[in-house]
Amino acid sequence: MEVFTSYHNIISPLGFTSKENYSSVLTDKLGVKPCQYGKQNETFCLSIISDEQLNSASQKIKDAVLFSKLEKLSILSIQDVLDQSGISLSDPKTLLIYSTTKGNIDLLGNSIKQSISKERAYLSSMANAIANYFNAVNKPLVISNACISGLLAIITAQRLIKAGQYENVLVCGGDLVTEFTVSGFKSFNALSPNPCKPFDARREGINLGEAVATLLVTKNKNGLPNSSMQIVNGASANDANHISGPSRTGDGLFKSISQTLKNNKVKIDTISAHGTATPYNDEMESVAFERAGLINIPVNSLKGYYGHTLGAAGVLETVLTLEAASHDQLIRSAGFSEMGVSGKIELIKEHQTSNIKTFLKTASGFGGCNVAALFVK
Amino acid sequence: MELIITSYCRIKNNRIVVKGVEVTLPKQDVPSYFFADAYKHFEMNYPKFHKMDNLSKLGLIASDAALKGNDFLQRNKAETTAIIMANKASSLDTDRIHQQSINDKDHYLPSPATFVYTLPNIVIGEMAIKHKLTGENLFCICDAFDAQLLIDHTQITFDQETKSAICGWVDYDNGNADSLIYLVEIASDSIKNTNFIPLNAAALDQLYK
Amino acid sequence: MDALIEKLKGQIIEQLNLAEVKPADINPDAALFGDGLGLDSIDALELIVLLEKYYQIKIKNPADGKTIFESVRSMATFIQSQGKA
User: Fold this and answer.
1) Which of A12, B117, C45, C80 is the most exposed place for a label (fewest CB within 10 A)?
2) Does residue A169 form part of some domain?
3) Chain B contact probe: residue of C14, C49, C52 with most B CBs at under 10 A
4) Which of A40-49, A203-212, A292-301, C59-68 has the lowest mean pLDDT?
5) How crowded is residue A110: how many other Cβ atoms within 10 Å of its Cβ?
6) Does A164 share its domain with A269?
7) Which residues of chain C make contact with B118, given a CB cutoff of 8 A?
8) Residues A18 and A140 occupy one common structural domain
């Protein structure tokens, strides 16, 4: 059975639709900006959706006061995809998968609004609130698997449809920039004060970003948008090496790529890498790509525009790459100028048009997890 | 393809049951003492254990107990062994500790060793590292133990390259440990000679009860 | 110096949750990383937290950690040099 990507949405500081985000990126707008953040008032580059952006968009939400920031953004993103596609979550053949690392983690802090119960810090409680807004009949599924959550959710959607469990799966990925994550990554010395530079010789760590992205995955061939591609295969794999340090040999990522491409001898036209801009991660990815024979293929990381959006990243970056592929467009890997990894890979230095029939998307995360997926027109 | 459960471990607060047999440990009210006792009882000999958060300790004890005394790891390949877990509280137990460390501006000292455990799938990573398992991974969150959900995700993983899996529920919240970890294999004549349980929702509910 | 070394050993064991290690097991001149105590990258970050927590010393450049955290003795020497012992 064939499974396709269908309509989609991205909500980020660079826009509230996929199209807005795509044109922002093509005009080299960056979501990441230097911000004073947290109780310590330190300066980091972060990509944050402003209150003005949120409040003006939230007017469309019924009883918006009952929802947290992440819930509002998720509702807006899902609503856009439902409007475009005409599908409904009250259809028993449609499932909602929510991908996130920290969900409403800001509810654990001291400065929370009274109107939202602390119970919603539980991820399933948050997902239920979102699903109930749309009168969903199926219980939403939450996937929380560190930074590979979003792409793992897309693969899970494809597999559930292939197994005949659903006809449509809406995959929504979301995470916020919170003092919780900023302080944590700071304690890891992983935050860059400047816009991040994936794969560059002078990269100095990640930028955190917030975003919500939604992608409809379907078996129905009719009425697909121009950007639709087939989700051919995907696989996850564990490094079984260290819970926070990436494998030096790229074992897990290599394994997930090899397994994804095993029975699919297609030419890969471009790779949307994870590319967080930490020294070890990017080096590991380059080693894995070279080991998999993926040399001389244009690669980008979109973290230079959006920062690392954690549980949203896999969905956001897949959606933006789908949109670009529909225009046969390669997107410049923002922040990259001088090669800073040992694996023989080719970063996209300027936006350019190129025939894109296929792309590979990858992600890696804490817990030693890696994932790859192959998309074909 | 018929999937079967070849071993399991149920832990509910201070009770450990391995393949139907209760393990007797000294009664402990403090969960960390209980984990330390279990660590000794199962002779885990893995100093990294003491650095883990409660969720990972719970998962490691339960998976080690389920793996003990059988040759699951010998007869199955590490690269086709998946780990599929679910829970309710994600990593909230450790999230609260990290949050505590940043609540007060004047005593602001987040710990990297705590922060790294503020993701539920770290327990999968710990199992993968200890047993060198490089297969597929998935961590799902749901309201309560959901046998059918676990079975659905196990089945779609076996539809791929997966040939065996460590699966289950591993939840730690407000001092309460609640887990059921079980080993899934494809039924074959040699395995069927030993005690096994068919993988279905009724059987899982019975083990979780 | 010896008293500081003994105190540090206890603090390292506690901060890094080295439950099966006793202070007497730690040779103050042995390498902290590598084979000795089997510490990893997270432990290295945790030692930075230890210095701030017990000695109010902030390490601005994490790369400095390499020489400071060579051994328990080098840590003690560094703490003394900061006038915090």
Assistant:
1) C80
2) yes
3) C49
4) C59-68
5) 7
6) no
7) none
8) yes
